């Protein structure tokens, strides 16, 4: 049976967006009209707003929840809620991911509280599915509002929206009634939801099938795109001049450590986003609002891995939202049983008053907690400058690699000199005292390996680390380094 994925006006869907139901579920369910609402006639089972069943995306079976606006405004009454709950439960029992196509006006008012309580029921069903280590993905079409948007549709692991779709908790008429005016044209849109990190992607209808396939891992997804004007491989960056071939730092008096710091900060040096694009074969974005951190469900050498990449060129000082995105990605990897790769490059987290008020310290702590609780293997790669707790939040990993020209220190040398000497100009001197170069970090046992700065070498080192890392090694290395630093 074909699920006719219709537009809000009921027209046939555009080519490429249709999915075929291999098996339809609960097609005989219908409402008993529990309120006997005036002038309301409960729809026939075949005319209900939600249909569910099994689809196949690129050879992978998934449970489908299809919520159609052209059927009673896509509203969620008792039948819709029950079908959604049963769909998630069957998917849990059969170990299937869930994909959803959503267009809804919210709760079915003519069924009153019987309708409203479906928000909680569907949320519980999503929670059980997630707790089983299974993934869900939804495409929000126009409109997606009210009780559907405020329950199960916003709880899926990945969310895309159709460009120009109306997306919001309250529809425009509700907003006008409550606030006294209609929302501006820039509000309650897919583009606004995307800008604020509420959906991960904007996907036109012809591309929604392929996005869903990539989201559930049936396909690798599109390659990660790096914005124009960024550093390129391999011609834009020579072998770092901060160390000799044997990894010994140059004489500190000659400014070797400070040269390493300035080299790691060079505008021509690739940051985490460039390395993520080079290392991965496919990418499904987990969107955040702080460009200092990017995250995605990625494919690396045919295997799925969650990647969290700091992007110094996007924002050198990540704030609270960046660390919340990192937590989301790490928690998702933990639940799905996927390894994590982090790419570290920041002189430090944002210390500004707005960042402080936004809880940056607490978000760094929660990121460290997510990394500590991760039940799968993790690998960190320091690609530029590692500075203070903002960098360590993504470096608390089972294997920690560092590029030959990268550095890592307890604090940026300038800030450290301002604290210790009340003179930031002494930063080059302090850099040498911090012993922050790749070779010095390796000799101290603070990192596992120094990696040559060639794409092939980095890829090989990352793959080897992912293959050998074991959950819990993240504390073994730091405990051993700590023991070496204790007086005997």
TrEMBL record:
Residues 1-234 form the CoA carboxyltransferase N-terminal domain. Pathway: Lipid metabolism; malonyl-CoA biosynthesis; malonyl-CoA from acetyl-CoA: step 1/1. Its main location: cytoplasm. It holds the Pfam family ACCA. It is found in: Cytoplasm. Keywords: ATP-binding, Cytoplasm, Fatty acid biosynthesis, Fatty acid metabolism, Lipid biosynthesis, Lipid metabolism, Metal-binding, Nucleotide-binding, Transferase, Zinc, Zinc-finger. Its EC number is 2.1.3.15. InterPro entries: Acetyl_CoA_COase_a_su, Acetyl_CoA_COase_Trfase_b_su, ClpP/crotonase-like_dom_sf, COA_CT_C, COA_CT_N. The keyword Lipid biosynthesis applies. In the N-terminal section; belongs to the AccD/PCCB family. In the C-terminal section; belongs to the AccA family. This is Acetyl-coenzyme A carboxylase carboxyl transferase subunits beta/alpha. It comes from Cryptosporangium minutisporangium.
